[in-house]
Amino acid sequence: MKITYYGHACFLLETMDNKILFDPFISPNVLAKEIDVDAIEADYILLSHGHEDHVADAESIARRTGATIVAAFEITTWYGQKGIEALWPMNLGGQKQFSFGLVKFVNAVHSSVLPDGTYGGNPGGFVIENEEGCIYFAGDTALSKDMELIRERFQLDWAILPIGDNFTMGVDDAIQACNLIGCDRVLGMHYDTFPYIEIDKDAAEMSFKKAKKELVLLEIGAERQLN
Ligand code: NI
Ligand code: MN
Description:
Elements: E1 2-5, E2 11-14, E3 19-22, E4 44-46, H1 52-55, H2 58-65, E5 68-72, H3 73-81, E6 87-90, E7 95-98, E8 101-107, E9 124-130, E10 133-137, H4 147-153, E11 158-162, H5 171-181, E12 185-189, H6 201-210, E13 214-216, E14 223-225
Parallel strand pairs: 3-4, 4-5, 5-6, 10-11, 11-12, 12-13
Antiparallel strand pairs: 1-2, 1-14, 2-3, 7-8, 8-9, 9-10
Bound molecules: nickel (II) ion and manganese (II) ion.
Nickel (II) ion binds near residues 49 and 110.
């Protein structure tokens, strides 16, 4: 699988046959102004929760591409009321086989409200498993012992974890999360976008290295093969 970083918590995952976009927040992100949001293709848009910094561009991309929005029931209902038809509601603990692989919607410890104040249900993360690999996109979350359940069920190749602290896990908690989920290869997200979550990237990489784990911080717009 190939992954492209579009800043903050937004990634495009490309499998053999499908393009899966996570948490699009591009047009309001000053760090991502080089990215042309109208050029992004997607077959699916996976939303971890309803906060603006995760859903800002989902509606426009869904309308233009016809991509199916996969998210908590309350969030897909909200998009349905806007007239979007390609929707797949999920809730915590549920899994579903899509054309690109298995998706399990796992616990996240956070909050979730949509930009207009509508209740967004529970926040979550996604485990994606197919013959090309297995990855965990944690969404916004605190460190949680529930992450051990992921290790018991899946053999992760990569984890996409928030490291910006303040609203989510920071670096130290992300390192601890690696032990819980049984995965030492991390793509960092949810850092530097706002003053609240600015981090020292060199120090973050050093902390991971000291713990004998790998932290990859992609440049916005950069892609990488996940093997
Ligand atoms: Ni959030
Ligand atoms: Mn967030």
